[in-house]
């Protein structure tokens, strides 16, 4: 039996009130909030965060990583390698991207299931559009990851796909030229016309494969960039009253490539053994899957549920949101621009920079971040073993708010943090209100894009308050 | 193995110091020529008699050509060096050793920095190509880490800590108001200091030293030759320079209330100079007040106040111009800004004036009462990972 053996979602901390768009631009913008990737996040870093929740709960080492997004941080250079590095996966594990369109998400998950070896599918997206438009308002940012495999005693299958049907067609509903900042969409009613038969055909075929009626479905998830088509398909599917999943539009918006997966992860968090979950992803056609929850789900201990992340924490103002997404260019501080990270030192330091691996002295046990060759305590030379601290909690020893340093979103909050079990590091804090930081606060590490300089993204780790 | 020092083996016979500030009218070359002219004029040494040069600068030029080109030095050794904020003091230290060794009869140490031409606030970076993992904090941010740690350890609330920091800035600006070479030449009310816009942590703009241009120079000869050039030389009593293991940011035992490098270099310098009780023996000290909490911690690290007692001494006026031990009588980095390469020699220039009784309206009374020693101190880097220089000069050879 091949299926999902571990999964986890990531919803960024910040929320934009749709009302703030209306207030600023004088356009109707609806109610509720959308999720917003912070200024130091991109689809790769969010993918890492989602994948970390998966890997923390799993004994399985993936042999491949498939990364899907419609908003890649790099072209020509693989983004999945940064995720691979941040997860400290062995070099034998393959890492490939599936980029450009929302449908890549459904494709990556299918490919991971079909891989015939433990494979991690990471789906991530940042959705926005021209200021005042529907994509800005209705979009959302988030990521989700699924570890697929045959399952064994240590890592049993939690959800098994008992049917998978696709319907493909070439039509122009939503598109974006490479380099363009916003998508374009044909008249909404045309997309509805194209999608409804495709979605209906895929779902019907999946139900047929599974040998069940729609009414047997415990949870029906319909996701896709065309919200109206999705709602109509769900309503017409013949599912039971109350089986149609909330599309999360009110709280986080539509997270594009990640959205069907994120809704699935949320449904899995609540699912009981033997329940059936149908997922229809409407994107340039339709992909319909019917998942059966296995008895193993009853004993799953999630690291962080999707639901717990839906509410979010920080509010971001509309001008700040526009600044973060590059639609509002603000006056920089009178400080030198940051230097781009150089390729050879970054390569030499891969396990430190990406996996947050320090070293421990074999002589006296002192931990070092970054890794050192000479022990700061006992001065032993070259007696170190690597030790990864990405998942170790820490405590703030002292901190400052730097109002002079360069940042996309000043001020920079920085802290000296002492790790549980030893080791100290000085780093930036993120997802934090500067006025609430205190000595003694608990923090955890999070993978971020510190800045982009000279066309190079600088990925590294920051600390954020522990909120669980 | 020992740090033996070169007490009384060399002497300063001339010094020069340009006005510090936004010297839009002066190039690096101009500042070097001006400081050299003043130092040579005050020394009685002809420029052609100088055998070797040590130039300290961090940003304003590379190689000895930075000095030899504008001054048209005729085929003589010119070393250019940097050691962060101790750069000027390092130029002086190396020039002293060269003369003490007998390699040269006359040497000049000169420091220069032109920061204002960059157009940036604060200091520009100088990082080698890297992996992008070093926290890009500014200097005020790294030094601001001292304030909450000190306050917490010694039980000061935020308001009291701010009062102590404000008192330091107020004192140094008060001294600087009396100094014609200072960048800022007026007293600043405590309320203005305390309410200035925040830069980093609890540090307001008046808790930070300024950004300025300047140069200073010293002419050094063997002690036995000093009286050929001046009847009031300054004898070099101690030169200590320490680079720490940069343990603070990676070792949880470091508590951000002290600079271990300063403690080590002070002990070394006092040993070299034969000083037992610095607070009672020194006439004055020029210390590295890059930020107000730095000066507070230095009072304890340099042995001028007991551990955890520095803040009380600051508030009591112990380090005022007319206090028990004048600290930064020239106005310090607060009044002069911090042109990196020049600062250490600018501090030495104040010792030169004060110990010779030439400091005018800010002349320290204890010199007339017989105190003959003055201390200069620099540190460069950040709390827990810095270099430190402590030097002592005196107006008489030791008995």
Brief synopsis:
The complex is a heterodimer of chains A (468) and B (399). Chain A has 468 residues and is an alpha+beta fold.
The structural class of chain A is: alpha+beta
Q: Which residues of chain B sit in consecutive blocks of at least 5 with pLDDT less than 50?
A: none
Secondary structure tally, helices of chain A:
12
- Rg from alpha-carbon coordinates of chain A: 22 Å
Largest sheet of chain B: 10 strands, mixed
User: Quick one: how many beta strands of chain A?
Assistant: 21
Distance between the termini of chain A: 34 Å
Widest β-sheet, arrangement of strands of chain B: 3-2-4-7-1-8-12-11-9-10
Helix-and-strand structural type of chain B: alpha/beta
Query: What's the total helix number of chain B?
Result: 14
Helix content of chain B: 25-40%
**Termini of chain B, distance in Å?**
26 Å
Q: Quick check: average pLDDT of chain A?
A: 95
Largest sheet of chain A: 5 strands, mixed
> Biggest interface: chains and residue counts?
A-B, 49 and 37 residues
Overview of the molecule:
The complex is a heterodimer of chains A (468) and B (399). Chain A is an alpha+beta fold and 468 residues long. Helix content of chain A is 24%, strand content 29%. Chain A is built from twelve helices and 21 strands. Chain A has helices spanning 18-25, 43-56, 80-86, 103-114, 134-138, 188-210, 227-236, 259-270, 306-310, 318-324, 343-348, 350-353, and strands spanning 3-10, 14-17, 33-36, 64-69, 94-99, 119-126, 141-149, 159-168, 174-175, 184-185, 219-223, 276-282, 285-293, 357-361, 367-368, 384-388, 394-402, 412-419, 424-429, 442-453, 456-465. Chain A has a five-stranded mixed sheet with strand order 1-7-6-4-5, with helices on both faces. In chain A, strands 19-18-17-20-21 form a five-stranded antiparallel sheet. A four-stranded mixed sheet of chain A has the order 8-13-12-11. The longest helix of chain A has 23 residues, at 188-210. The two termini of chain A are 34 Å apart. The model of chain A has no long low-confidence stretch (mean pLDDT 95). Chain B has 14 helices and twelve strands. In chain B, strands 3-2-4-7-1-8-12-11-9-10 form a ten-stranded mixed sheet, with helices on both faces. In chain B, helix 1 (28-43) crosses helix 2. The longest helix of chain B has 19 residues, at 158-176. The two termini of chain B are 26 Å apart. The relative contact order of chain B is 0.20. The chains are: A alpha+beta (468), B alpha/beta (399). The A-B interface holds A 333-336, 338-342, 344-346, 348-349, 352-353, 366, 368-370, 372, 376-377, 397-406, 412, 414, 416, 418, 422-428, 439, 450, 458-460 and B 118-122, 124-125, 127, 129-133, 135-138, 140-142, 144-145, 148-149, 152, 198-201, 245, 247, 249-252, 254, 256.
